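User: I've been trying to design a sequence by hand for this structure and keep getting stuck. Would you show me what you'd pick, starting by listing the structure so we're on the same page?

Assistant: Good idea, let's start from the same input. This is the structure you sent:
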């Protein structure tokens, strides 16, 4: 865990060819890898009465986001949490509710940073056979944007090295200062920025190495650590510390502005819905289930209905042109849900793809058009959600809403559409949190420009291949419905075959996509 400045000096280390025996680790069977999530912060700098790791961002506690990253990491076998004193039960509830099965222990941290780490090391050593070692990754609980790539790089590096840090280049000039009485601070040095890195977490070690470093440090009466790599550097100077490239967005939630930025990053980031193994899996999961699709007359809604029916679901596809269902009329919504429930005895999924796209300058838009946009694009989803609640609570089902790629960046002449679609994201996150206790999942699909009748009406015919197919969006929508996800915004994009994004993270792709949306509205 880093200090409040988040900085750490890093030195170039000799390569293995320079002959140090401590550089390389003998190759044996891959040891067990444990992530230790350090959650001892109090939240004082953010101005909170609770630890900042319990603060909710994008509908979930910060620590839940962080633990979910490790839960989904193939290279992590188990997770231990060191929590601020007095708040262990809070984390245990989060772990149980979220089904974070890799979390094996939640331990109360110590009164100091040193004591917390020593407790973690002691817990990691329990049950190990003589001579047995394990990999350990220490990570700040308040860095919830950690990428799977960084985790994998750290674990892979432990095949060769005993200590691994994560860092990024410094875009800012770093200065060294001294205080001169009451006159303030003065610069004493400006280090070469090309050799400076900003330290992040995780920091990865062989357990035997970090344990030995802390054992030696215990004999130093002046020992104090805010950083585990610095302990190895100081007390085991012959052990090289390899540096893995971090991510700029792997930020630490420390200051109030960090809360805002992190929340926005989660809102922008795409989430991939897990696909089922084969057609039989879709059939098994959907057979006997009931779907109610508002906006099911054509486009994405009709394609969802068609797919789900093929897999054995009972589907009620509703729309103005087919069933006379007006989503902006609460009675129509209630009647549709009541009928589906009366005929099948259950409602597992409620989907709303209905929407209207009206383009024009707000000052020149009449009241009727404004009211229509608000009724269909905002109030209707709210009414559908409220009416669906009792049915979805019975089946622990899911509500699926839809936003637009314009929600992150309002554009001239799209004020009504973009603003109401942005509201769907906030509604999704709020309801996912509000309904979590009943087991109801709420998600939002964000398709890029899609070939639908609504779009054709607004923009006319567009070049072949320039738009997503409604069938592709429908397929992703089914994957979301069948997943355990909740509170997510799932982007559906048409991949540019000329772009190499194989090494990009979801956050990098999402940010690039946002910048590219200035010309596009779906």
């Amino acid at each position: 865990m880093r200090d409040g400045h988040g900085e750490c000096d890093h030195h170039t280390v000799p390569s293995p060819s320079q002959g140090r025996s401590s550089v390389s680790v003998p190759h044996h069977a891959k040891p067990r890898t444990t992530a230790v999530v350090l959650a001892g912060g109090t939240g004082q700098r953010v101005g909170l009465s609770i630890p900042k790791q319990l603060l909710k961002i994008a509908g979930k506690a910060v620590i839940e986001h962080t633990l979910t990253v490790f839960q989904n990491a193939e290279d992590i076998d188990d997770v231990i949490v060191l929590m601020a004193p007095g708040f262990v039960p809070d984390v245990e509830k989060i772990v149980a509710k979220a089904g974070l099965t890799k979390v094996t222990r939640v331990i109360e941290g110590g009164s100091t940073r040193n004591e917390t780490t020593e407790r973690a090391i002691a817990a990691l050593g329990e049950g190990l056979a003589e001579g047995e070692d394990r990999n350990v990754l220490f990570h700040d609980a308040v860095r919830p944007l950690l990428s799977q790539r960084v985790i994998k790089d750290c674990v892979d590096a432990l095949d060769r090295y005993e200590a691994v840090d994560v860092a990024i280049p410094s875009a800012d000039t770093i200065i060294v200062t001294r205080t001169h009485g009451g006159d303030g601070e003065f610069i004493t040095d400006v280090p070469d920025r090309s050799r400076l890195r900003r330290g992040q977490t995780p920091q990865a070690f062989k357990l035997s190495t970090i344990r030995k470093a802390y054992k030696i440090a215990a004999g130093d009466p002046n020992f104090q650590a805010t950083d585990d790599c610095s302990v190895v550097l100081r007390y085991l100077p012959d052990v090289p510390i390899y540096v893995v490239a971090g991510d700029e967005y792997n930020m630490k939630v420390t200051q109030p502005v960090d809360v805002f930025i992190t929340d926005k990053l989660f809102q922008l980031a795409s989430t991939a819905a897990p696909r089922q193994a084969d057609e039989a899996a879709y059939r098994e999961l959907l057979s006997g289930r009931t779907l109610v699709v508002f906006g099911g007359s054509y486009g994405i809604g009709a394609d969802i209905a068609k797919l789900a029916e093929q897999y054995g679901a009972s589907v009620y596809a509703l729309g103005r042109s087919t069933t006379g269902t007006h989503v902006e009329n609460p009675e129509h919504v209630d009647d549709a849900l009541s009928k589906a429930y009366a005929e099948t005895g259950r409602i597992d999924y409620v989907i709303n793809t209905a929407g209207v796209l009206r383009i024009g300058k707000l000052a020149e838009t009449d009241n009727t058009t404004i009211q229509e946009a608000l009724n269909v694009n905002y109030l209707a989803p709210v009414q559908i959600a409220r009416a669906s609640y009792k049915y979805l609570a019975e089946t622990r089902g899911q509500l699926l809403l839809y936003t637009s790629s314009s929600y992150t960046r309002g554009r001239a002449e799209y004020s009504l559409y973009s603003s109401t679609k942005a509201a769907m994201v906030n509604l999704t996150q709020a309801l996912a949190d509000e309904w979590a206790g009943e087991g109801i999942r709420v998600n939002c699909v964000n398709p890029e420009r899609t070939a639908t009748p609504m779009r054709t009406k607004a923009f006319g015919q567009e070049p072949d291949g320039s738009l997503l197919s409604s069938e592709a969006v429908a397929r992703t929508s089914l994957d979301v419905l069948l997943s355990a996800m909740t509170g997510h915004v799932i982007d559906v994009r048409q991949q540019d075959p000329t772009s190499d994004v194989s090494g990009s993270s979801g956050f990098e792709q999402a940010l690039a996509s946002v910048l590219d949306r200035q010309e596009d509205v779906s």
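That's my pick for every position. To get oriented when you compare it with your attempt: The longest helix spans residues 367-395. The chain has two domains: 33-169+195-254, 271-495.
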